[in-house]
Amino acid sequence: MEQQRRLDYLIHPATSALQGRIQVPGDKSISHRAVILGALAAGASECRGFLDSADTRATMAALRQMGVQMSLEGEHLCVNGVGLHGLSAPPAALDLGNSGTSARLLLGVLAGQRFSTTLCGDESLQRRPMRRVADPLNAMQAEVQITPDGALPARITGNRRLRAIRYELPVASAQLKSALLLAGLYAEGETVLTEPAPTRDHTERMLAHFGCPIARAGAQLRLSSRPLQANALQIPGDISSAAFLLVAASIVPGSDVLIEGVGLNPTRHAVLEILRLMGADLSIDNRVEASGEPRADLRVKYRPLQGITIPRALVPVAIDEFPAIMAAAAHARGETVLHGAAELRVKESDRIAALAAGLQNLGLRVATSPDGLRVQGGRPDAGVVHSYGDHRIAMAFAITALAATGPVTVQDCKNIDTSFPGFIRCIQQIGWEISDKAVRID
């Protein structure tokens, strides 16, 4: 029987400032959409800056099983699109590993196919809520069957005639919105969606880039399907990954770090506003736009941080960055308060519970609520924390340890490859050392 091994990180407090220029991997959200829309477009689409990670490979593998040819060399992806109606039945169930984005977006695509399919995933993914996607898809006359608990596996019956709907999203979710827009490509009539709060708009921007523009009026989106045409894409650096480096330089005295080519989509840069409210020294240079997405260089210098009450309006558009923000809160003077973030409960882990447990293990005072937490900042102690297999929790505690009173061990860090492959190599460029060790699990 093969022995199971866990990857742990050992982080010693930084003894010198973080300095230098660095680039983070391509944006994960945009990379998923590049594969999917490239597959559904007619012709070959070339994409540069693609994130080669465990999650995006799950999306690629699923589409390959449905007959889409593609090649990936480093960060250069080429997808030979088959058009909206060119996918073929896969030989087996599509296993999407740990990728919630793959599952939800592909549910929208598969609802409109002529063939039937089954989606499954690992234990973590099969705990994540899918009813929020399945119910409106079924209202479009799809046939999506999920478990009684509202989770994967999902059975999608093919050859259904989809009809467009008018739908008010019950939660602010870019994945739900995107799934319904993708299903709308196969529906008769105009799909009309209303968001309760703004969410990331990468799907809308990329649909327009591939020839199917979305009409927006306030909180309402309108899609009338048209064929997609292949196009070239340039993917910016992922601001969710950059957020960890922004916090790292903010808490280590004397630090001065430049992060090049980071995506600054207006539905994604709330993390910058939150960190600035906390007192971070951030500047933005070299703004440009490519493939419909803005990008810029971010410079961050050390400055003591202050705890704040995070504005509720910023919460939906910073949801993936809260592990990094709570690492900043751990080092801020005073209390940081987060409410309106119940969505954190149903990510790769219960991120509210995971953050609270880890911060308490490092000697900080933390109180939780159903939709958030309160963190009394200070200087974390040495200790051991668990990531619960969640890539963003693992990186958050690696950051937190940089200015702790002593060494911190972060357990179960392998899943960092989900969004930030080469994390250790990247941060070594700015003078940050982490030791990693494989630990046998009996």
Structure, explained:
The structure is a single chain. The model has no long low-confidence stretch (mean pLDDT 96). By secondary structure, the protein is α+β, with helices and mostly antiparallel strands. The longest helix has 13 residues, at 28-40. Helices cover 28% and strands 26% of the residues. The protein has a four-stranded mixed sheet.
Note the topology:
Layout: E1 4-11, E2 19-23, H1 28-40, E3 42-48, H2 54-65, E4 69-73, E5 76-82, E6 94-95, H3 100-110, E7 117-120, H4 131-139, E8 144-145, E9 154-156, E10 166-168, H5 174-184, E11 190-194, H6 202-209, E12 215-217, E13 220-224, E14 233-234, H7 239-251, E15 256-263, H8 270-277, E16 281-290, E17 293-301, H9 322-331, E18 335-338, H10 351-361, E19 365-369, E20 372-376, E21 383-386, H11 391-401, E22 408-411, H12 423-428, E23 435-441
Parallel strand pairs: 2-15, 3-14, 6-7, 10-11, 21-22
Antiparallel strand pairs: 1-22, 1-23, 3-5, 4-5, 7-9, 8-9, 11-13, 12-13, 15-17, 16-17, 18-20, 19-20
Helix pairs in contact: 1-2, 1-3, 1-6, 2-3, 3-5, 4-5, 7-9, 7-11, 9-11
